[in-house]
Structure formats: C-alpha cells, structure tokens
C-alpha cells in the first residue's frame, strides 16, 4: 500500500485540496520515501506555476519572502542537512547559495539579511529551478544507494525536510497574497478560486467538563519537537464554540465601534490599531459603502457566512472581549478538537489561542542546527491551532502548534470563542 497519495485536481480547487498527502510509517520503503519527496517537491512547483518571474522576486514586507527565495531555501535545507553531510562526492550546486538561502540557522553559517531578500535578482528563476533539479537528482541517488544503516540515518532528516517544505508552501501563498494586496490592480492568483465549503453550523457551544487530559504529540507519526513532551493538564469546565467567528460577526463588531473603543483592547493592541490605522480585517476594502476582500480569486464581496480571516491576535482578543467571551487556551482547543466538538477546526483559518508560545514541561531542543527549528522562538509569540486553507494536505494534526507575533495578520488567521461558566 503506497504511503503517499498524490491527488491532481483542478487549479480552481483550494490550494490545500490538491496538495500531496504526506503519511509515512516507520516501515516506509525507499520507493515510498522517493515518492513522498517527489510529491512534496512537485507541490511547491504547482503553487509556483501561476506566478511570473516578477511575481517570484517581490518582497512586500520584511516578514514576507520572495517565492523564488522560498523555492531555493527549501532546496538549500536538503543540500545543507542531508546531502553535504551524508552524500559522498556530492557537488554543491553553487558555493554562494548557502549565504543567500540560509534563513535563521546560526549553526549553519552566516546568512543574508532577511528584509533584503527581494533584492536578490540573481540567481534568476531558471537557475533556481536548475538548483532544485540538481538537488532532487542527488537526493534520489542518495536514497537509492544508501546502505541500511545510512538509510535509517537519512529518514528523519528527509522527513523534517519534507514537513519544512510544506510549511514554506503555505508561506508562499500567504506571502504572494500580501504582495498582490499592495498592487493597485489587485491581481488574482487563480481567478476560479473559491473559499472551501464550511460546516455552516449555528453558533452553538459544546460543554467540556472539568477533567485532566493529556495534550501534546503521543509519539505516533511525525511531529515537531515543540509538540512534546505530551503531558497532563487540567481543562474546563468550559463551553467552546463549535463554529468559527464569521465575517458577519465581525461586521457587527465593526458597526458597534469595535475599532474605535479603547477599553476593548490590550494596551499594545490599541497602540497597533492607532499605528496601523486598522478599521477592518486585512485585505478588506470598502467600495461605495460595501465591504470587499482580496482572496486568491481576486477582489470579491465579503460573504458574512464565511470565517473571518487575516486578523491579528490583538483583534481576536478585542473581539472576544466585545462578545463577553474569551479565546480558548491551546489545551482547551486540543481537548475539544480531539473530542470532535469543533467544526472547521482544519482547512479554513488558523485559530488564535490565549496561550503564549512556551515550551511544554520538560521540553529540550535537540542539539545542532536542527535544534534551532522551534525552541529559540519560544518568547513573545502566541499559539495558533488547527490549519488554514493554504496548509498542504496531511500537514496538520491535533497537537500542531503554530505561532506568530500578536500583531501579525498576513497569515490565514481567525478565531473561535469560549465561555467559562
Ligand atoms: Fe525554513
């Protein structure tokens, strides 16, 4: 039975629906690994296909990266951590690339400054494509030729490399949408794109009784190190909203002066509202008194029944206060999601929680450069749970901990509410 399924769907399907599904068991064969590798690498190029060379170069803000840079960086990751240490006689494609395409791995050497990635006009997109092909051939050859001992060493590096590339596949879409939103002609990534169908439930709350639960990754299948160790937590009693907060809910918040009422906001949040001039979620435009928003399909009317998206933690927190409710903690979210209480937990918007991004009890980052993957970011950020419409299929899970700074809103971020009796 193949470990990887690749679905080829029409371009107008949501990006996540046509992504490869990555599920590799401990018994996966070399052919399984090569199939998984090729499926993920192909998905990156599929997401790039609608974009011109000019699209691939633009960097619309320091937090976003050019598409060309993403395509090269995920390739450097395999070159740096898989091929250079383990492929005898591997020829590095270009000695200058590690400086250009290392992101934040201090242990892996010096790197170009992030806010200036949009200035890297060379290598051009064709050279980056050739870089990808060079590394792909070497990875396939390494997996095929490795003896059993080396193959066992390669598998965990391959696995994190593939999940890493899937993370960047989501960032490619969030970053290009931000770039398109700066363009007065508001280009469509895919004019046939539509928001995925939601469960569309009424605003009902599910009861979560007080109890001790285990959260975190249980050791079955891949996870990032920040999802463990699994540990016991006291949760509830709490009532958690089955559905996501919608655009219609948000328009009521706006009409009630939500963005003009300082008592609804955290101090830093109110400062952000003033500094950024926020009056609505990201990518919303008011045209002749009606609200529109930019999506992958271009500019269209705001649908009040769809989940609200592109809001910061500060906005989510202010909305919850206005509603007389709270944001869930990440433990409340995980326990409720595992219990099947949450509609649209995955595949629409990442959901802000009120939990700061901190290490779980007993967490230790791994030694070496790959130990820099998560642990060093565990301060000043907030946890988001679930997954978004841009998350590749098979990438999300109940224990997944996404994290962003509280002012960020270019990701697909929304919320659901809880009520503590
Ligand atoms: Fe990365």
Automatic annotation (TrEMBL):
GO terms for biological process: ergothioneine biosynthetic process. InterPro entries: CTDL_fold, DinB-like, DinB/YfiT-like, EgtB, Sulfatase_Mod_Factor_Kinase, SUMF_dom, SUMF_sf. The lineage of its organism: Bacteria, Pseudomonadati, Pseudomonadota, Alphaproteobacteria, Hyphomicrobiales. This is Ergothioneine biosynthesis protein EgtB. Keywords: Iron, Oxidoreductase. The keyword Manganese does not apply. Residues 210-341 form the Sulfatase-modifying factor enzyme-like domain. Coiled coil: none annotated. Pathway: Amino-acid biosynthesis; ergothioneine biosynthesis. Residues 36-171 form the DinB-like domain. It holds the Pfam family DinB_2. It comes from Pseudaminobacter soli (ex Zhang et al. 2022). The keyword Plastid does not apply.
């Amino acid at each position: 039975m193949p470990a990887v399924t690749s679905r080829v769907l029409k371009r107008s399907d949501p990006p996540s629906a046509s992504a490869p599904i990555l599920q590799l068991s401990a018994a996966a064969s070399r052919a399984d690994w090569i199939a998984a590798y090729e499926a993920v690498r192909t998905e990156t190029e599929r997401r790039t296909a609608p974009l011109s060379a000019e699209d691939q170069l633009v960097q619309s803000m320091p937090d976003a990266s050019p598409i060309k840079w993403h395509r090269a960086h995920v390739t450097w990751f395999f070159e740096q951590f898989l091929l250079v240490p383990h492929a005898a006689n591997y020829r590095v494609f270009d000695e200058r690339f590690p400086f250009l395409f290392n992101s934040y791995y201090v242990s892996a050497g010096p790197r170009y400054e992030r806010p200036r990635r949009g200035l890297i006009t060379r290598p051009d997109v064709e050279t980056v494509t050739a870089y990808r092909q060079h590394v792909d051939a070497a990875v396939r050859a390494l997996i095929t030729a490795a003896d059993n001992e080396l193959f066992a060493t390669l598998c965990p590096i391959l696995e994190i490399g593939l999940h890493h590339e899937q993370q960047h596949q989501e960032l490619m879409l969030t970053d290009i949408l931000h770039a398109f939103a700066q363009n007065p002609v508001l280009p469509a990534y895919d004019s046939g794109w539509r928001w995925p169908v939601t469960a569309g439930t009424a605003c009902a709350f599910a009861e979560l009784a007080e109890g001790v639960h285990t959260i975190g990754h249980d050791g079955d299948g891949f996870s990032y190190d920040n999802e463990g160790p699994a540990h016991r937590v006291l949760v509830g009693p709490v009532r958690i909203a089955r559905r996501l907060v919608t655009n219609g809910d948000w328009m009521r918040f706006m009409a009630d002066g939500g963005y003009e009422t300082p008592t609804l906001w955290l101090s830093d949040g109110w400062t952000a509202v003033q500094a950024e001039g926020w009056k609505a979620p990201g990518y919303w435009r008011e045209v002749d008194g009606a609200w529109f928003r930019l999506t992958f399909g271009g500019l269209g009317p705001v649908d009040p029944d769809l989940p609200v998206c592109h809001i910061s933690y500060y906005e989510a927190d202010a909305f919850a206060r206005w509603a007389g409710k709270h944001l869930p903690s990440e433990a409340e979210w995980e326990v409720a999601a595992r219990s099947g209480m949450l509609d649209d937990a995955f595949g629409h918007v990442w959901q802000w929680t009120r939990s700061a991004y901190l290490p779980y009890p007993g967490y230790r980052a791994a030694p070496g450069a790959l130990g820099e993957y998560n642990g060093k970011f565990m301060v000043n950020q907030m946890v988001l749970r679930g997954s978004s419409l841009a998350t590749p299929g098979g990438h999300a899970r109940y224990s997944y901990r996404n994290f962003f700074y509280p002012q960020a809103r270019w990701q697909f971020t929304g919320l659901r509410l809880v009520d503590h009796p």
